[in-house]
Amino acid sequence: MDAWVWTVPKEHSKGGEKIVRPVPDAMRKFIEILHDETKRSGLLLGSVKGSEAVSQWGRGVYKKLGHSEPWTLHDLRRTLATHMNNMGIAPHVVEQLLGHSMPGVMAIYNRSLYLPEKLDALNKWYDRLDILSGGFTNIVLLNRAE
């Protein structure tokens, strides 16, 4: 964890390409604690599961959280993409965070991992979620003009 980069090997990605994401600053202490608790297993979060098991679990998570309106893990991805773009994060950075390939000729010539840009985006996303979770008396959320 010295580099604070999370890599999804190509054999575990839907598109067959390796996905590289930096770990947001605020998450590092939490991950260090998880790592200390799970280092015997070699896994950070539980056990290895097939994509079907994760999808199945994701279909019912809204019920486990006591939500009456159904939603899926894909809805969380869509929410992340929409809000990051609304926050001014460059679309190609958002797409890489989602594990999507670059379109067309870009995919051939541009091999950048955009790690600094991804880290900045994830730090901003964490800060946004932190604000939305409440507990701040000196921050007022304003609706964006349309």
From TrEMBL:
Q: Which PANTHER family match?
A: PROPHAGE INTEGRASE, PROPHAGE INTEGRASE INTS-RELATED
Q: Which family does it belong to?
A: Belongs to the 'phage' integrase family.
Q: Which UniProt keywords apply?
A: DNA integration, DNA recombination
Cite the GO molecular-function annotations of the record: DNA binding
Q: What is this protein called?
A: Integrase family protein
Question: Which residues does the UniProt record annotate as the domain Tyr recombinase?
Answer: 1-124
Extract one GO BP annotation from the record: DNA integration
Tell me if Magnesium is a UniProt keyword of this record. Answer: no
Q: Which Gene3D superfamilies match?
A: Intergrase catalytic core (1.10.443.10)
